[in-house]
Amino acid sequence: MEAINLKRDENLESEIPNLSRLTHSLSATLLYPPIIVASDGKEDRPLKSSMSFIDGPFACSHHLVNMRTLPFPDNFTTPSYSSLFILHNLGLACKVNENMNHDSLCHDQPSRKYATKFEQVTMQSINRCSLTGMHAFEHLNDLSNINVSPMQLEAFNVTFAK
């Protein structure tokens, strides 16, 4: 019987595995399918055929991880007008050949208008903060001022007007 000599590639251990843009897009499509809200028709109010949360898309590399209501600082049982908005800039694998046309999967085009404001609500303020939302760092003017470094998470405290 022949002995097999397995060598460890030291370069592989130092590399962090990353996905290509196509793989991220396909994975997000599987993990977060479209949400369809249906009504039994018993309510006597007009229904909207569509509703948008923001006025444009984020860049393809940005993923909204979570948006949750924050409580009032002095009463944790009562929701406030603030929400913790957590974004992740996925980053991409540089070794993966990206010669595919991603126009159908991605909105990263120079002429594309990206998200600048929320729809259906009025934003009072937005601040970069810690991941817990407890410490504010920097005031931003609108969503277009959000910048997340590749492969990083950033949290933002978004306060809506009453």
Relative strand content: 25-35%
Radius of gyration: 21 Å
Uncertain segments are none
Shape: globular
- Structure annotation, total helices: 2
| DSSP E strands, number | 5
Helix content: under 10%
Instruction: Strand order, main sheet: write it out.
Output: 1-2-5-3-4
Second-tier CATH architecture: Sandwich
Secondary-structure element string: HHEEEEE
Task: Specify the biggest β-sheet.
Answer: 5 strands, antiparallel
CATH class: Mainly Beta
Structural class: mainly beta
Number of separate domains: 1
Q: N- to C-terminal separation?
A: 77 Å
Let me know the average pLDDT. Answer: 77
CATH topology: Immunoglobulin-like
Describe the fold and architecture:
- The structure is a single chain.
- The chain is mainly beta.
- It has a single domain, classed as Immunoglobulin-like, CATH 2.60.40.
- It is 10% helix and 29% strand.
- It has 2 helices and 5 strands; from the N terminus they run ααβββββ.
- The chain has helices at residues 10-14, 21-31; strands spanning 62-72, 75-89, 123-129, 136-140, 152-160.
- Strands 1-2-5-3-4 form a 5-stranded antiparallel sheet, with no helix packed on it.
- A hairpin with a 2-residue loop joins strand 1 and strand 2.
What's the arrangement of secondary structure elements?
Blueprint: H1 10-14, H2 21-31, E1 62-72, E2 75-89, E3 123-129, E4 136-140, E5 152-160
Antiparallel strand pairs: 1-2, 2-5, 3-4, 3-5
